[in-house]
Amino acid sequence: MTTTPQQLVSLMPFAEALGVRVTDATAQEVRAHLDWAPERCTAGGVLHGEALMALADSAGAICAFLNLPAGAGTATTSSTTNFFRALRDGTLHAVSRPLHVGRTSITVQTELLDDSGRRIGHTTQTQAVLTG
């Protein structure tokens, strides 16, 4: 059975409830999107930092998952996000790519961009490879 990119989101109920959309998902690159909405904002209509981090974490988790060996699972062991500018409208776009795929860990880098391609933030996360 072939799994579509969006079906991968359905494995993460929080990401699905938040409205994360995945349009492309390969072991080399995952592209995910989250629309600006007032209920996802802080004061002043700025998309909440946790919404940015949730999109980055979701896209990064899918990227790590697609790089796992057969039968393995994964869990985030560290995640660092840098914020560069606010998002006040449009769509937040995430592009996740593996930096390191090893036997015991996978490190993924996620760029967060606005509709114009300007960098909103950057996340680097490491996932443990769980076998057993």
TrEMBL record:
GO terms for cellular component: cytosol. The lineage of its organism: Bacteria, Bacillati, Actinomycetota, Actinomycetes, Pseudonocardiales. The keyword Hydrolase applies. NCBIfam families: unchar_dom_1. InterPro entries: HotDog_dom_sf, PAAI_dom, Thioestr_dom. Residues 44-119 form the Thioesterase domain. This is Uncharacterized protein (TIGR00369 family). One of its GO terms (molecular function) is 1,4-dihydroxy-2-naphthoyl-CoA thioesterase activity. Pfam families: 4HBT. CDD domains: PaaI_thioesterase (cd03443). Belongs to the thioesterase PaaI family. Keywords: Hydrolase.
